[in-house]
Design goal:
The chain contains 14 helices and 18 strands. By secondary structure, the protein is of the alpha/beta class. The protein has 2 domains: 219 residues, Acetylglutamate kinase-like (Carbamate kinase), CATH 3.40.1160; 150 residues, VC0802-like (2-Layer Sandwich), CATH 3.30.2130. The strands form 4 sheets. Strands 3-4-2-1-7-10-11-9 form an 8-stranded mixed sheet, with helices on both faces. A 6-stranded antiparallel sheet has the order 13-14-12-15-17-16. Strands 5-6 form a two-stranded antiparallel ribbon. Helix 1 packs across helix 3 and helix 2 runs antiparallel to helix 5. The chain starts with a strand and ends in a 5-residue tail after the last strand. The structure holds adenosine-5'-diphosphate, aspartic acid (ASP) and magnesium ion. The site of magnesium ion (MG) has 3 residues, from loops. The site of adenosine-5'-diphosphate has 19 residues, from loops.
Length: 467
C-alpha cells in the first residue's frame, strides 16, 4: 500500500491513511510505503540548492520549517507524553542531520547529485517516522524499516535503479519475516542506498515505483497506490474538470499514459507489476470506498468491462521544447539519423517525440534537459530551430490500434489550435500532438469533449466520488 504526499500531508490525512491500513489489516498484513508529506521534497530540493550556492541563512530557515512542520504533525497526532518525547527526539535528530548536511555543502561550496539525494531522503524518513509512531500509539503491531537496508541500487544518483537480486534477498531477509509474524511494515518510497550505503533516490515521484518493486519482490497479491484522485482518470482533473475515473485499464495503457505525462503514476510503476502479473489498484485516500482503477491484464476482469470506446485517456506533458534540424544532407543519404541521435545520446538527453520529413527532423525534449553545447553540435548537421514553451498531448487507448477515423476526430477537435508537431506510429496505442503551452487547456478540453462527452454507460468510466 503506497500513500502519496497529500495522503500523508496533514495529521488528518495521516489518520485517514492509518484507517485505510487498518481495514487492510483485517485481510492480511500490509507493507506500507510512504512518500514525504506534500511539499516537503520540493522544500528539500530548495534547501539543497540554497546550500549549494552558499545561501546559508535561506537553507537554514527552510530546514527550520521542515523541522517545525514535523514537530507540529507529531504534536497533533500523538497523545502519549512518553511516545511524544521519544518521537520528538528522533525528529530533532533527523533535522539536526539535515542542518549538518547544509553546513557541509556550504563549506565544500559544491552540491553534487550525491548530496542532493541525501537532502531529498529526509522527507520520506520523517513522514514514515511519524506515521509508524501514530500507528503504534493506536495499538497496531507495526515496524518501521529503513528501506535503505532493502532497496540497494546502482550509483546513478538522482535516478538510481535497484539491483534486483540483492533486493529480492533483502526483502526475504528483512521484510518477509515481519509480515509473516503479522507485523505491518512501514517504510519509505523514493529512496534507496548503494551497496556501500550511500543514499540514492529513484527520481521525483518515485514512491509509486518503490511500492511496485517491493510488491513484486514480495510476490504480493496486489499493489495499491493511494492518492488524491479517484484512480486514473480520462485526463488530469486539474486541466479538465469533467474528467472521469477509469475503472479498468491494461498494463500497456497505464504504462503508456504514465510515460506520456499522467502524473498519477510514476512511469516505471507498471513494469514490476507486469513481470509478476500483479494487479495495480489506483485509489483515493480521500474517498476510500470509491472504486478507483484496476490495472491488469486479467482477461476475465477486462472482459467483464467490455469497452467499445476508442480513447481511454488523454495525457499532457508540459515544459517541453521542439528542436527542429533541417538539412539537405538528409536527402537520399544514410547515416544522418545515426549522427543526429548519437549527439543526443552523447549529451544524455532523452528524445520524446519524433517526426521527420525528407529534409527535416523535429523532436521534443524536456526543456531543462539540454544545453547550448548540444545545440552547437547539432548545428554542424544543419539549420537548427528551437521552440520553447510547448506541451505534448497524447490520446491513449489499446483500441486506437485497429480503429479508423481517430486522426480525423482528433484534428477536427483541434481545428482552432496551432499544432506544432504530430506523431503516430504504426502499432502505437497513442496519437501525439505538440501545442504551445497557452493552448493546452483549450486543446485538452476540446479533445475530452470529442471523445468522452457522449453519455457514458460503459461500466469502465465513473464520475469521481463526491461530484
Ligand atoms: P501522489 O502524491 O499521491 O503521488 P501525484 O500528485 O503524484 O500524487 O499524482 C496525482 C495527481 O496526478 C492528481 O492530483 C492529478 O492532478 C494528476 N493527474 C495527471 N493525470 C492524471 C490522470 N490521467 N488521472 C488522474 N490524475 C492525474
Ligand atoms: N517525495 C518524492 C517526490 O516528491 C517521491 C514521491 O512522492 O513519490 O518526488
Ligand atoms: Mg506521485
Amino acid at each position: 500500500m503506497k500513500f502519496g504526499g497529500t495522503s500523508v500531508g496533514t495529521a488528518q490525512a495521516m489518520q485517514q491513511a492509518i484507517s485505510i491500513v487498518a481495514r487492510e489489516e483485517g485481510r492480511g498484513t500490509p507493507l506500507v510505503v510512504l512518500s514525504a508529506c506534500s511539499g516537503i521534497t520540493n522544500k528539500l530540493v530548495q534547501i539543497a540548492g540554497a546550500a549549494g550556492r552558499s545561501a546559508l541563512d535561506e537553507a537554514m530557515t527552510l530546514a527550520g520549517e521542515v523541522r517545525g512542520f514535523h514537530l507540529n504533525l507529531l504534536d497533533e497526532l500523538i497523545k502519549g507524553a512518553e511516545l511524544k518525547a521519544e518521537l520528538a527526539t528522533t525528529i530533532e535528530a533527523l533535522a539536526n542531520r539535515l542542518e549538518m548536511l547544509i553546513k557541509g555543502v556550504d563549506i565544500v561550496g559544491e552540491l553534487t547529485e550525491r548530496s542532493k539525494d541525501m537532502f531529498c531522503s529526509f522527507g520520506e524518513l520523517l513522514s514514515t517516522t511519524v506515521f509508524a509512531a501514530a500507528m503504534k500509539e493506536l495499538g497496531h503491531n507495526v515496524a518501521w524499516v529503513d528501506v535503505r537496508t532493502v532497496m540497494i541500487t546502482d550509483e546513478n544518483f538522482g535516478f538510481a535503479r535497484p539491483l534486483d537480486e540483492i533486493c529480492t534477498a533483502n526483502v526475504s531477509k528483512i521484510i518477509t519475516p515481519l509480515l509473516a509474524a503479522g507485523t505491518t511494515v512501514v517504510t519509505q518510497g523514493y529512496i534507496g542506498a548503494t551497496k556501500d550505503g550511500r543514499t540514492t533516490t529513484l527520481g521525483r515521484g518515485g514512491s509509486d515505483y518503490s511500492a511496485a518493486l517491493l510488491g513484486a519482490w514480495l510476490d504480493d497479491t496486489s499493489i495499491q497506490i493511494w492518492t488524491d484522485v479517484d484512480g486514473v482518470m480520462t485526463c488530469d482533473p486539474r486541466l479538465v474538470p469533467e474528467a472521469r475515473s477509469i475503472r479498468v485499464m491494461t498494463f500497456s495503457e497505464a504504462a503508456e499514459l504514465a510515460y506520456l505525462g499522467a502524473k498519477v503514476l510514476h512511469p516505471d510503476t507498471i513494469a514490476p507489476a507486469v513481470q509478476k502479473n500483479i494487479p495495480v489498484y489506483v485509489l483515493n485516500s480521500l474517498h476510500p470506498d470509491a472504486k478507483g482503477t484496476i490495472i491488469t491484464n486479467d482477461p476475465e476482469r477486462l472482459s467483464g468491462m467490455s469497452y467499445e470506446g476508442l480513447v481511454k485517456s488523454i495525457a499532457v506533458k508540459k515544459n517541453q521544447c521542439i528542436i527542429n534540424v533541417r538539412s539537405n544532407r538528409m536527402m537520399g543519404r544514410h547515416g544522418f539519423m545515426n549522427e543526429l541521435f548519437d549527439l543526443f545520446a552523447r549529451y544524455g538527453v532523452s528524445v520524446e517525440m519524433i517526426s521527420t520529413s525528407e529534409v527535416s527532423v523535429s523532436l521534443t525534449v524536456d526543456d531543462k534537459s539540454f544545453n547550448d553545447e548540444l545545440i552547437q553540435d547539432l548545428k554542424t548537421l544543419g539549420e537548427v530551430e528551437i521552440e520553447h514553451n510547448v506541451a505534448t498531448i497524447s490520446v491513449v487507448g489499446d483500441n486506437l490500434r485497429m480503429s479508423r477515423g481517430v486522426a480525423g476526430r482528433i484534428f477536427s477537435a483541434l481545428k482552432n489550435v496551432n499544432l506544432r508537431m504530430i506523431s503516430q506510429g504504426a502499432s502505437e496505442i497513442n496519437v501525439g500532438v505538440v501545442v504551445e503551452e497557452p493552448e493546452v487547456a483549450t486543446a485538452v478540453n476540446n479533445l475530452h469533449r470529442e471523445f468522452f462527452s457522449a453519455p457514458q454507460d460503459h461500466a469502465i468510466f465513473e464520475k469521481p466520488a463526491g461530484k
